[in-house]
Structure formats: structure tokens, C-alpha cells
């Protein structure tokens, strides 16, 4: 691991911001640190950069403990949400300033500046001042300034959140390209799960100061370890269920019995569990096609809302259990008020125990 956080904990006075967070970023890897506002992402960035001394735990770079080292000795570059370019310096001077701060000799600086302005496609703007650039161009200058000194780790703290959506998507691809071309180990902080999934080799999902799950985007999306990860990474329908048999594990979901292929001795009959299923994994059929021996479980309900999202419809169905689910559908949806059956496959169900953090089988 190039960067390691070992049981990092930080409190501001009595307020806990980060609680026993451990994860690593491998050499050349791009890891997204993802979580809602206030979950402790910036505090982690500050602790890694050396601007905050953690209350407990260690920060390691290339295996060496740097928890007590000053920021300038760590070989870490940070790009923040807000611009930190010097307005009185040109683009080239801003990039060169970062190199000077890292001790790159003056006779090499001009070449390195040109190389990195080329990388971010800003060669022609080298003599412009920040005020003469667009928001996207200013972000690219900051990226060039951050990667030109070839840091061991690049920290990007919500670098795109101040930009509009289309620019954000274009710059996201730019960041992916620059990271691939330079191979710089990168921790990318964001609250935007789509941005994180589009960019990262691996995700670290934070919930209220703690690491709630880590993994490659697709496995984490498909097998979330906690209900929080299930609903923060994309959308998830939560259905309450009751265990009616232990072996094979059998549940009642929306009034229908679901027999699962595994057995669990540690959930007792009669205990409450919650089932999560993605809107795109639910199907809709008319009640007349409901067959008791179909492999999928079919739960009857009534359509209460149809939202036309352009590329898809979001169909809200109220089940007989009074719970509502959203079903994604690309074909013509049924009308509001229609009776339907919602079909789901065992493989698409993620089941959590009553403790809410214990994933049961499946
Ligand atoms: P955001 O995306 O909104 O910046 P975040 O995930 O980066 O959020 P942090 O900024 O690390 O989260 O904040 C974590 C918690 O610590 C929050 O409850 C916040 O109010 C608190 N906090 C952060 N900085 C300070 C500070 N300097 N003094 C006191 N409390 C702080």
C-alpha cells in the first residue's frame, strides 16, 4: 500500500468526526472516498495531508509512519473544492510555484511546466492569468500544479462539486486520463456516488465517521455489506420480512413466502429482517400472469405513481403490505391505479439481519 490509514480517529472537542477508520490505497490506484456531507471525508484528507493531527490512529506512506511529520515533508499534493491559484501569477508561474516549493531546480522547471501543461491541454494558456480562464481551465491548472512535482499521493477533495453537471462529467474523464497517464496514487473525495463509480478502481464508503464498506464499484453495488451502502450506492428498495423457517431460510416478504437456497442457524424463526432490492432488478407483470410456481417471487400491488425520467420510467407500486417499491422500466409502464405483480429473483435480494449491519447469506 502506498497510503494506509490505521484505526484513524479524530474528535473536534467532544464531537467525533472520524471513528476508527482503516483503509489503504495501493500504488497507482485511484480510490474514491465516498459519503454524505459531514461523514468525515475532509477530516481524513486533512489528517493525510498533515493539517490535522488525529486524536488516535496512524497515517502511513510507503509503510513509514508519517502521523507526526510536517505536511511539506510528506510528498502529498492536494486539490481542494475551491480554487487556490495565485491570481497575480500566470498559469505557467502557478505550476512552476508548486515545483519550486518541492525543490525542483530552476533550470528544469520550465521543461516540467511545459510537459504538464501539455498533459492538461493548456499549453496555449501558459501566459494567461487565472481570471482569464474558464472554471474548467482553472481546475486543469490546479491538477497540473498538483501532479507536476510527482507526489507520492494526490488528494482530490471534492474537486468538481463547484462546477455545473456537464463540465463535471467532462473533467471527471480528464482526471481519469491524467491519473492513468501519470500513474499517481490518488484518493478522490466525493459525495457523488455516480462520480465515484465512474472514476474509481475501488470505493471506500463512509457513514457517520466510520468506514461502512470498501470494494470495487460493481461488487460493492451488487453485494452491499450494510443497508447504508445499499441505499447510498444507487437506489434500493427496502422491504421488511419475517423469518418463517431456518433451513432452508424462508422469509415472508410482502405477504409472499420466499425460500432461499442457504440455511442460517443464527436467525431464529419469527425474527424480523430487511430485504434490499434494486429498482432495475424488479419486474412488473399483470396479476393475471402471476403463477405460483414461477422461479421469481411475485408480490401483488397497485401502481400509485409513474414518473417519466426520459430514458426510463420509475413506477411506484404500493404492495399489500403497505410498503412502496420503485420499479425501473424502459418499456411503456402500466397506468396509475392498475393492479400489477412485482417480480423479484432470489439472487437480486440482499438480506440484512435485525442488527442492520449483518448481511445474511445471499
Ligand atoms: P462535507 O462534505 O460537508 O465537507 P465531510 O464528509 O468532509 O463533509 P468533515 O468536514 O470531515 O466531513 O466533518 C465531519 C464532522 O466534523 C462534521 O460533523 C463537522 O461538523 C465536524 N467538523 C469538521 N471540521 C470541524 C472543526 N474545525 N471544528 C469542529 N467540528 C468540525
TrEMBL record:
GO terms for molecular function: ABC-type tungstate transporter activity; ATP binding; ATP hydrolysis activity. GO terms for cellular component: ATP-binding cassette (ABC) transporter complex. It catalyses: tungstate(in) + ATP + H2O = tungstate(out) + ADP + phosphate + H(+). Keywords: ATP-binding, Molybdenum, Nucleotide-binding, Transport. Residues 3-233 form the ABC transporter domain. Its EC number is 7.3.2.6. SMART domains: AAA. It is a peripheral membrane protein. It is found in: Cell membrane. The keyword ATP-binding applies. Belongs to the ABC transporter superfamily. Sulfate/tungstate importer (TC 3.A.1.6) family. The complex is composed of two ATP-binding proteins (WtpC), two transmembrane proteins (WtpB) and a solute-binding protein (WtpA). This is Molybdate/tungstate import ATP-binding protein WtpC. The lineage of its organism: Archaea, Methanobacteriati, Methanobacteriota, Stenosarchaea group, Halobacteria.
Amino acid at each position: 500500500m502506498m497510503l494506509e490509514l490505521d484505526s484513524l480517529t479524530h474528535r473536534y472537542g467532544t464531537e467525533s468526526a472520524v471513528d476508527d477508520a482503516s483503509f489503504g490505497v495501493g500504488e497507482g490506484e485511484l480510490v474514491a472516498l465516498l459519503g454524505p456531507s459531514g461523514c468525515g471525508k475532509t477530516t481524513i484528507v486533512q489528517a493525510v495531508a498533515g493539517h490535522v493531527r488525529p486524536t488516535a490512529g496512524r497515517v502511513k506512506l510507503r509503510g513509514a509512519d508519517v502521523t507526526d511529520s510536517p505536511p511539506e515533508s510528506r510528498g502529498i499534493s492536494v486539490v481542494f473544492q475551491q480554487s487556490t491559484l495565485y491570481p497575480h501569477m500566470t498559469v505557467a508561474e502557478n505550476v512552476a510555484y508548486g515545483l519550486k516549493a518541492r525543490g525542483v531546480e530552476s533550470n528544469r522547471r520550465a521543461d516540467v511546466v511545459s510537459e504538464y501543461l501539455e498533459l492538461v491541454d493548456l499549453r496555449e494558456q501558459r501566459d494567461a492569468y487565472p481570471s482569464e480562464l474558464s472554471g474548467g481551465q482553472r481546475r486543469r491548472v490546479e491538477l497540473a500544479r498538483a501532479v507536476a512535482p510527482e507526489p507520492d499521493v494526490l488528494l482530490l477533495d471534492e474537486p468538481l462539486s463547484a462546477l455545473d453537471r456537464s463540465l463535471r462529467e467532462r473533467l471527471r474523464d480528464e482526471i481519469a486520463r491524467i491519473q492513468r497517464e501519470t500513474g499517481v496514487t490518488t484518493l478522490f473525495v466525493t459525495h457523488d456516488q455516480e462520480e465515484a463509480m465512474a472514476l474509481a478502481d475501488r470505493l471506500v464508503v463512509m457513514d457517520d465517521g466510520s468506514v461502512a464498506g470498501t470494494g470495487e464499484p460493481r461488487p460493492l453495488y451488487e453485494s452491499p455489506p450494510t443497508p447504508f451502502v445499499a441505499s447510498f450506492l444507487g437506489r434500493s428498495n427496502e422491504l421488511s420480512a419475517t423469518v418463517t423457517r431456518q433451513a432452508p431460510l424462508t422469509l415472508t416478504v410482502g405477504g409472499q413466502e420466499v425460500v432461499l437456497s442457504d440455511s442460517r442457524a443464527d436467525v431464529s424463526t419469527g425474527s424480523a429482517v430487511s430485504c434490499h432490492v434494486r429498482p432495475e432488478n424488479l419486474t412488473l407483470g399483470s396479476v393475471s400472469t402471476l403463477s405460483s410456481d414461477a422461479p421469481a417471487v411475485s408480490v401483488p400491488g397497485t401502481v400509485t405513481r409513474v414518473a417519466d425520467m426520459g430514458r426510463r420510467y420509475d413506477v411506484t407500486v404500493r404492495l399489500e403490505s403497505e410498503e412502496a417499491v420503485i420499479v425501473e422500466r424502459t418499456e411503456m409502464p402500466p397506468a396509475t391505479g392498475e393492479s400489477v405483480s412485482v417480480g423479484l429473483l432470489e439472487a437480486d435480494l440482499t438480506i440484512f439481519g435485525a442488527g442492520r449491519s449483518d448481511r445474511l447469506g445471499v
